[in-house]
Every structure is written in structure tokens, then in C-alpha cells.
Description:
By secondary structure, this protein is mainly beta. 3% of the residues lie in helices and 46% in strands.
Amino acid sequence: MRKNLFLAGIFCSTFGFVSCSSDDNSSGNQDTQRLELFTSSNTSGTITYTDLLATMPMARTFTIGSVDADGIYYYNDRDEVIIASRTNNRLEAYGNFRNTLLSPATSLTMTASSTTGDFTNAREIAVDGSRVVVVQDQAEINGNVNKLLVYQRTASGFTLEKTFTIGFKLWGIAIENGNLYAVVDLTGDIAVFNSFFSKPTGTLVQDKRVSIEGLTRTHGIAYSNDDNVMVLTDVGLATSATDGGIVVIENFSTVFSSTASGGTISLSNQKRIYGPNSLLGNPVDVSYDKQANKIYIAERLNGGGQVLSFAYPTAPQADATPLTARLEPGVTGIYLRRE
């Protein structure tokens, strides 16, 4: 998911923080009008929104029509929040969001959706212009088939444009310059589909796949074209609340292009955050803020779900303590936006 955003300010919530402090916005960017955090949950039937420029930022919770949601995005032009519903097996858009923020309302109204049943077991969405890409992760309910589905957001809803069958287990995706990067779940690999939207519908084979040395199981992925940084998360063992991590690859385009398909990106090309102080167990989604040098994590397992933030790593590997940690039950998706 595209999440290369400026973020200033440390956020609080009604759930509480391990640490909570104010920030003086020392980056000097005086043109920023909105700094916003959106998160989804797969247990609570809610999303949360935080205005990061508020004097006292507080996470505000809204009920939606899906108990289980994965992947979240805010369309500014349409003033709507989009989620992939695992409850209803469809994309759902919740409109009139700004007016709802100005009211005491605690729920959002769905204003559009895709056809129910195009996919099951959704794991992520990525947005590029009017296109929304949905990940279907293999499960018994869908015949253990992995798919990428491309929708067009139209005036009336979502129109299914293409469906691709993928030969490996999927989770996180990121789109940059028309190329789609996908994590290869159950492995430490990532793959790329170049010129993704021009591919013909049907079975799709990756243009390249590489392994990340020392990474057990990839889930979250975020790429910043502006400073050529790739950020990945490692959930390790799904049952362990302490073995997760964050992997940062700088000069990514050069490192990736110089690694042969089937090859390995070595530890020498990585900066890593691992260890018990990090609170990382199952970090399932990630957002990277290149201007504030911070990384934001949806941590699904530790504490039942937490939203964590970290300073950009400077050492090859460290057991970094989060800058902030907010409890959020079942958190699965995280999206940050600057305007």
C-alpha cells in the first residue's frame, strides 16, 4: 500500500500509550494541513482515525458494517474510507467522512460496495488512482487459490476490471510507478509484477522474486520512491508474540535490480529492528514516513493488537523500544495520509 507520508506529532488515544508526548513539528513543513492515521481491525467491527495535528491527538473509533476488515485507505477526492471486508467478502466505501468527523456520530454509513463474493479471505488493498487492488489469500473456503483483483472506483461503485491467479501465498502489496510488489507469505521473499495493470487477466507469473536474508515470514510492505527505501515486516512464528521484526532496505531499486531472480538480499543491505523491547510479534502492516523518519506498525498479536511507532533505524540491527504504543484490539491495517 502506498504510505510515503510526512508525519509530525506523537499520537495519544483513549486506549492509552506506553509513552505519550507532544512534538514541536521541528521538520519545518508549514504547508501541511492534515496528518492523519487510519487503522482497521479484524475483530472489533470498527476503524479508528487520528488527527495528528490536533493539540491533543486522540484516536476516534467508528463502527462499520464489517466485524472483520483488512486493508484501509482514505480517498480524499471522494471523502470516503475504503476497507476490504472479510465479513462480507467485498470492498466497502464509507462516505461523507469529514462531516461525520464534525458530528458526535460513532458509526460510518456505507455508500458503495463491490459485488459480494468476487473474493474471500482478503488480506490487503492497494490504491493507484481510481484503481483498487485486493489481495485474496488462499484458504479452504476459496479452494486455496491466491488472487489479485483490480477494481475501478466509478461514480456508482466498484467495477471488477481484472482478476489474476497467483502461484504463491499472498499478504501485503505495494504499488509504485505501475509496478506491484508482493510479499510471498510463509517465506522471507518478495516478488514484483512489472507494469502490473497492463498484464492480461488470468494466471500471472512474477517478473522477479528474491529472498531477504534473515527474514522468516514477510507480511507488511511499504515502498517510498522519494528516498528509494523499502520497509518490510517479519511476523516470524505466527504463534509467537515476541519474534517479529522490521527490515529496512535502502537504495532499494539498485539493490533489487542487482539481485538475480531467485537470489538473496544480504544482511549487509539491511537495517533491522528485532527483540523483546520492540513489542513486535506479528507486525502485519506497515507505513513509512520518510520526512519524519518514522515507521508505523499494525501489531496484531502482542497485547491483542497495538499501533506502534519507531524511529527510523540507524544501526544494522537493534532492539528498539517503540516511540509510542497504543492498544487497538485486532488491528490489521494502517494507512497514513498527508495533505
